[in-house]
């Protein structure tokens, strides 16, 4: 009788908070949490495509050092995914993608040189601590 063994995947320790910016006209030059200026950093993000492929992307993101928060525009990601996977614009569905962490730059560069199997690649990922969603309240007078 064969015994089935389950392989346990050990993820690395969580780092960074993440926010997907759905607003086309809002750049988040200031952190929505602490109101300090954000900086532009190149960060290697990991996306899961249709729960079958891991995508490693080295992208410029807004980053708040004090809050440890990464912010990236949804439209920027949609544009990248549409160019990579879709022949027809109507075929694209952003819900097929899930951004869930980051990897080290050296691992990103290694993945460009050699093909890393998905079970090994998942062990290189640092998942996000949490995913935050910010709502923009237009300027004006409001009752308390």
What does this structure look like?
A hairpin with a 3-residue loop joins strand 2 and strand 3 (53-64). The protein has three helices and seven strands, in the order E-E-E-E-H-E-H-H-E-E. The chain starts with 16 loop residues before the first strand and ends in a 12-residue tail after the last strand. It has one domain. The longest helix is centred in the middle third of the chain and has 12 residues, at 74-85. With 144 residues, it is α/β, with parallel strands linked by helices. A seven-stranded mixed β-sheet has the order 6-5-2-3-4-1-7.
The helix/strand series, from N terminus to C terminus, equals: EEEEHEHHEE
Biggest beta-sheet profile: 7 strands, mixed
Beta-strand share of residues: 25-35%
Beta strand count? 7
Mean pLDDT over the residues? 85
Domain count: 1
- Unreliable stretches (pLDDT < 50, length at least 5) are none
Shape annotation: globular
Instruction: Give the termini separation.
Output: 69 Å
Radius of gyration, in angstroms, nearest whole number: 18 Å
Helix content: 10-25%
User: What is the overall number of helices?
Assistant: 3
Structure summarized in a few sentences:
It contains three helices and seven strands, in the order ββββαβααββ. The chain is α/β, with parallel strands linked by helices.
């Amino acid at each position: 009788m064969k015994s089935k063994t389950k392989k346990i995947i050990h993820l690395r320790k969580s780092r960074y908070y993440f926010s997907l910016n759905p607003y086309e006209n809002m750049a988040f030059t200031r952190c929505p949490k602490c109101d300090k200026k954000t900086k532009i950093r190149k960060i290697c993000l990991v996306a899961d495509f249709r729960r079958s492929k891991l995508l490693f992307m080295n992208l410029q993101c807004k980053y708040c050092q004090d809050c440890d928060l990464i912010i990236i525009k949804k439209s920027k990601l949609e544009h990248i995914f549409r160019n990579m996977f879709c022949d027809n614009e109507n075929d694209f569905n952003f819900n097929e993608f899930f951004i869930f962490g980051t990897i080290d730059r050296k691992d990103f560069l290694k993945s460009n040189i050699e093909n890393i199997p998905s079970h090994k690649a998942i062990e290189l990922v640092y998942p996000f601590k949490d995913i935050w969603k910010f709502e923009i309240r237009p300027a004006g007078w409001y009752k308390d």
